[in-house]
Amino acid sequence: MAPLPGAELVRRPLQLYRYLLRCCRQLPTKGVQEHYRHAVRQSFRVHSDEDNPERIQQIIKRAIEDADWIMNKYKKQN
């Protein structure tokens, strides 16, 4: 599973949220999808009060890297 197209266009938190949920839909089983969907929601709740633009960009970059790693992890298992 390659990263979804459009990762390079993610600039704002809502765009990241939508991108990560689309990634979750690509995962193999319902249980895995629900697990990562829950993790995405929790992360957004934790970071919802972040207002430093530089820190927001760091979070976005790291979240996309993590999503790519997870997608590759499940690609190798299948």
TrEMBL record:
Record's Pfam families?
A: Complex1_LYR
The residues covered by the Complex 1 LYR protein domain are: 11-68
Which InterPro entries has this protein been placed in? Complex1_LYR_dom, Complex1_LYR_LYRM9, Complex_I_LYR
Family of this protein: Belongs to the complex I LYR family. LYRM9 subfamily.
From the Swiss-Prot or TrEMBL record, give the protein name.
Answer: LYR motif-containing protein 9
- Tell me the organism's taxonomic lineage: Eukaryota, Metazoa, Chordata, Craniata, Vertebrata
